[in-house]
Structures are given as C-alpha cells and as structure tokens.
Write a structure and sequence with these properties.
Radius of gyration: 20 Å
CATH class of the largest domain: Alpha Beta
Structural class: alpha+beta
Distance between the termini: 32 Å
Helix content: 10-25%
Order of helices and strands: EEEHEHHEEEHEHEHEEEEEEEEE
Largest sheet: 14 strands, mixed
Bound molecules: calcium ion
Number of helices: 6
Number of domains: 2
C-alpha cells in the first residue's frame, strides 16, 4: 500500500471497516443550507466482512444519471450474506447522492462533476469533500475498486469495462485479468481525456486495481447493462476468492470471453464543429469506417441551410455514441475502439 498523507475528513462514517458481519448505515456529510445551518446529507454505505481476505469496493452513482451500477450495487448491498464472504466487500451504490436524487451528472450543490474532483479537498466544495473522503478514508482499505458508470444522458455505450494504459506492466496485466473476470463483452484500455482528476486516477495512485465500466446511457436503464453489471460484480467477488465459484463470462454472441480493446489516439474521438441538432448514423457496437459519416448536424432554425456531415477519422467499433439530440460545439458524438495491441510492443 502506498502511504499518502490525508487531512481529516468532515464526512462522518458509522462503519467500522475492521468489524466482522454486515454493517449498513449512512455516511453523513455536512451541508449548511437555508432550511438547516447544521444540515447533513446521508449517503448509504454497506460493509460485509468475514475473516481475513481481500477487500473489494463497489461504487455507483458518482454520476447521478447513470443507473445500472446504482441498481446492481444496491442489490448486492441488500442481499450479500456475510456467511458467503471470505474477506470484505464495501458497497456505496449512490455515492454522489445529491446528483443521484437530482438525476444529473453534475452535483446540484456545487455544479461540479465529482469524477473530476479527485483526490478531493476536505475544505473544498461539497463534491471535493466527498471525493476526499472516498480517496483518503475508504481506498486505503481496498485491494480492488470497481466503479460503475454509463454514458448517462451524454451518450450511449457498449456494455464494457475500462481501464487506463498503466505504466506498470504488472498492474496492467492484473487489471486486464480482473476485467476479463468481470466478463463484459469488451474491456477498453484507454488514455482518456482530462484523466488526472478522476476517481480511477486516485485509485491508481494508491497502486490499487481499478476497473471502470460503461454499461449504457441515453438516460435510460439498459436491461443488458444491468445484467452485465450484476454478473460482473459476482464475477469479481469470485475472481478475488471473496465468494466461492468461477466467473461466468459467456457472451451473447457465443464467444467465451471479454474482448480487450483500445482507444488508440485522439482521432478516435469525434467532436462536433458547431452547435446543432445531431442525427447519428450508427448505434454503439457498430463497425465504422474512417471518412464515413458519424452523423449530420442539422440547423433547423435556418430555412435552406444544408446539414453538416461529421465523419469518423478511424476504422473500428463504436464504443460510445452521441446522447442528446441537441449538441454543442466541442461535444463528443462518437468514440471508436480497436482490438488491443500493446503499444510498447510496437
Ligand atoms: Ca460516467
């Protein structure tokens, strides 16, 4: 474990992570507001521990409008029997509860994207304070973190796990093996956009295995996304020998395992060059070609204006697609992935 100095948290935690058995309660984060200067916000947390063994952390709802992880983690939190467990499982199904209850990506309290607030700040904004607690007071107990996301209202995604291209080959292999055990159709290795302030980066700084997921989006609950999430969570517990059994990873297309993919370079991201109404050409999972249209921007406010064609710059499989119809200049409307090939091997 990497030692990192951490300032005292303002969030209070009722859970004694060292105690055996099931503990369920609420983190209490102070929030002064017009109706209560000494008000708090309560965040559900469940710990299930039995004897010695690895610790698995499952988090959902870091973005409020991403539902599959919230459903899957809260199901596990309600039902996991300590007698089944060897080790410890910490479950926080709706960590960014203000955003969850507001059904938005951003926190309605401070307007921040919590997944751009890590490692946080005890004296910062509300989201920064929560990020600081998760980083400094939960992660030190953890061996593997699985943070469940979707594309929210901002897009759709193929059910997939994801991870960074880690500089340490050993950690990269460990993480890829964990992703394979999770058993989503795809595992995407990527470099990311603005990644330093994400939860994943905080987990990695502590040399803990970090898996993310993208399991749907479009502001709806993906049935397949929930199935993959629930199965993946059980699979990770089996893989870590926290519960008995072997991960089940059969895919709908008949293949036996997760396909490792990568987002090779910035040209895999399609940005729109203007604000308008976006008509996508493909849904996620489609094979796409460089030079072919990703979609068309329509300017319905102008009578005779031609739509603008937005093109893919890379061949591959569409990992993420556009979400809302009305997009702004600079929004991402497609992310293309390719089969994984370790760039270190050329
Ligand atoms: Ca997300």
């Amino acid at each position: 474990m990497v030692e990192v100095h951490v300032e005292r948290s303002r969030v209070s935690n009722p859970i004694d992570f060292d105690r055996d058995g099931r503990q369920a309660g609420y983190l209490r984060a102070p929030l002064s507001r017009n109706t209560a200067g000494w008000g708090i916000v309560e965040i559900p947390i469940v710990s299930v521990k039995n004897g010695a063994g690895p610790t698995v952390l499952f988090t959902g709802g870091i973005h409020g409008d991403e539902y599959e992880g919230q459903i899957a983690v809260s199901c596990l939190a309600r039902t996991l029997d300590p007698a089944r467990v060897q080790g410890r499982v910490i479950m926080i199904p709706a960590f960014n509860i203000p955003a969850v209850l507001n059904d938005t990506r951003m926190s309605p309290i401070d307007g921040r994207d919590m997944n751009r607030c890590f490692p946080g700040n005890a004296r910062g904004t509300f989201s920064e304070m929560l990020a600081h607690f998760l980083d400094g007071f939960v992660l030190p107990h953890v061996d593997i973190s699985v943070d469940l996301h979707t594309a929210g209202h901002s897009g759709d995604s193929v059910p997939s796990t994801n991870m960074h291209y880690l500089p340490s080959a050993a950690m990269r292999e460990k993480t890829m093996a964990a992703a394979k055990a999770f058993g989503a159709p795809y595992n995407v290795v990527f470099w990311g956009v603005d990644e330093g302030a994400t939860f994943t980066s905080s987990v990695e700084r502590r040399n803990i295995i970090s898996l993310g997921t993208e399991l749907g989006g479009w502001g709806r609950v993906s049935i397949e996304g929930v199935r993959i999430a629930k199965r993946g969570i059980e699979n990770i517990l089996k893989y870590m020998h926290v519960i008995e059994g072997t991960p089940v990873t059969e895919q709908c297309d008949g293949s036996a395992a997760t396909q490792h993919m990568m987002v090779r370079d910035p040209a895999c991201y399609s940005f729109v060059p203007a604000s308008g109404l976006f008509e996508p050409a493909n849904i996620v999972g489609a094979e796409v070609r460089a030079g072919r249209p990703a979609g068309w921007l329509h300017f319905v406010e102008d009578v005779d204006r031609e739509p603008l064609e937005v093109r893919y710059e890379r061949d591959g499989v569409l990992w993420m697609s556009a979400g809302p119809g009305r997009v702004k200049r600079g929004d991402v409307v497609g992310v293309v992935m390719n089969e994984y090939r370790d760039p270190a091997e050329g």
